[in-house]
Amino acid sequence: MFESMPTLENELESVERALSDPSIHADQGKARELGRRHSHLQQIVGTWRKWKQTNDDLGAARELAEVDDSFAAEIDSLEHERDELAAVLTRLLIPRDPLDDKDIIVEVKSGEGGEESALFAADLARMYLRFAERRGWKAEILDAEESDLGGYRDISIAIKARGTVELGKAPYALLKHEAGVHRVQRVPATESQGRIHTSAAGVLILPEAEDIDVQINPDDVRVDVFRSSGPGGQSVNTTDSAVRLTHIPTGIVVSCQNEKSQLQNRESAMRILRARLLAVAEAERDEAASATRRSQVRTVDRSERIRTYNFPENRLSDHRTGFKSYNLDAVLDGDLDAVIASCVDAEATARLEDAREAAGDAS
Questions:
Q1: Dist CA 207 CA 279 (whole Å)
Q2: Closest to 180 (Cα-Cα) out of 209, 202, 205
Q3: 147: which of 118, 135, 227, 259 fits an S-S bond (Cβ 3.0–4.6 Å)?
Q4: Residue 121 to residues 33, 144, 258, 261: CA-CA distances in angstroms?
């Protein structure tokens, strides 16, 4: 059982030696990568060592119980603890999405439903901002195109964890399942007769790319500047502060106009462009990743919904996992833990089944 653990324990010792070498910190990218790997290995190996100790204690208790009945009471407790640790360790050892350690860029786009869809997109954006705040993450609006009534036709938000995070607790690992079409059923603010309308907004979750992940040749990017549009502001329609980047090889276009500075808008656009290029590269390298990307928004069409927010019934329904809750106000205020956990559990179950099938095929 857990045959791979001695190898991982040796790797942990190797990573610790590497991190103790001052020269490694001259390369910040390499140092960050080693730091993340150390955190993950430490969690796995620490759990394994607890499991081994508990298993040893259980063996000792069984031997002692043969000569002293008072030790028999410890057996059930130790068996339960050992089994719980085994379950945790099994989950930690499941093959992981290589992007799970990443920070993210969340893109929310209005779709069918006109102005009501834009208002719902604003509700979703606020939900992710509040979720990030609850977890102590840093959230930054990179660009936003507002609608006439204060909703969002399109908004991009960068979400970044602070410090080193636990295995499976980084922004991408938790929020990647938010990608898809979100449907809302409610009486719109624009509805005078109280009729319930259905509209939709789309969410894209892009792993934020570092320079070591994606290198962009400046000659491959066409830069256009134009005047910002939207709600007032000192620079709106007065200076060419908005930036549009076109990545010529892929045809990907990114526009940013949220900041008054052309330089700031260009930097934000480059962050989004790198994230989109990383998603494309991962999809090309890995067919499994490609399947994940295809599950994200293709068109913001109600028929492709992953989740429904029903206001009259105060109900949230996730159509992939069957999860339902009746606390919509709390969910929209960022209380997403339960619905996210249902998606994470479903992914872990699927990955464990895939690993078992692969092991069976190999044997």
A1: 7
A2: 202
A3: 118
A4: 34, 11, 17, 26
pLDDT in tens, 232-257: 444 444 567 899 999 999 999 999 98
Handedness of CA 337, 340, 344, 346 (dihedral sign): positive
Question: Are 264 and 235 a contacting pair, CB within 8 Å?
Answer: no
Q: What is the mean pLDDT of the chain?
A: 86
| 3-class DSSP state of 68 | coil
CATH topology of domain 104-349: Alpha-Beta Plaits (3.30.70)
Q: Which of 115, 125, 139 lies closest to 208, judged by CA?
A: 139
Round to the nearest angstrom and report the end-to-end CA distance of the chain.
16
Give DSSP secondary structure letters for 304-322.
Answer: GEEEEEETTTTEEEETTT-
Backbone angles phi, psi at 200, to 5 degrees: -145, 155
Report d(CA 41, CA 60) in Å as an integer. Answer: 28
Q: For tokens 């036709």, what's the residue? A: 153
Do 307 and 277 form a contact (C-beta atoms < 8 A)? no
Buried b (16+ CB within 10 A) or exposed e, 282-320: bbeeeeebeebbeebbeebebebbbbbbbeeeebbbbee
Q: What is the pLDDT of residues 32-51, one digit of tens each?
A: 888 888 888 999 999 999 99
pTM as predicted: 0.77
Q: Are 282 and 289 in contact (CB under 8 A)?
A: yes
Distance, in Å, from the CA atom of 121 to the CA atom of 119, rounded to the nearest integer, reads: 5
Model confidence pLDDT, tens digit, residues 266-284: 999 999 999 999 888 877 7
